[in-house]
Amino acid sequence: VQLQASGGGLVQSGGSLRLSCKTSGFSLDHSHIGWFRQAPGKEHEAVSCLSGSDGTADYADSVKGRFTISKDNAKNTVYLQMNALKPEDTAVYYCKARVLFTEYWGQGTLVTVSS
Length: 115
What we know:
Blueprint: E1 2-6, E2 9-12, E3 17-24, E4 32-38, E5 44-50, E6 57-59, E7 67-72, E8 77-82, E9 91-99, E10 102-105, E11 109-114
Parallel strand pairs: 2-11
Antiparallel strand pairs: 1-3, 3-8, 4-5, 4-9, 5-6, 7-8, 9-10, 9-11
């Protein structure tokens, strides 16, 4: 199982970015997958996740209405569309999958939002 996140970068406040998490070694169809982030000096925070059982999406209150999680099963890729970015969204973003009873993490991608 592998997950590779990409798409981070530097963006101005109010801008948008789309993160991608390319996966391999398992099927996205019935796997729970999500995005997390860690800002400097702060705890890991769950940003958004997709249920493997019914496909419902959950979001942290801090990103509701601005971020959208989606997946393309054919491309084995999960996306995080981030709009109306704020400086407090600055963090390293990670994707995580739960396959059967094991969790797998991808390497992070850095998102920096300038004010």
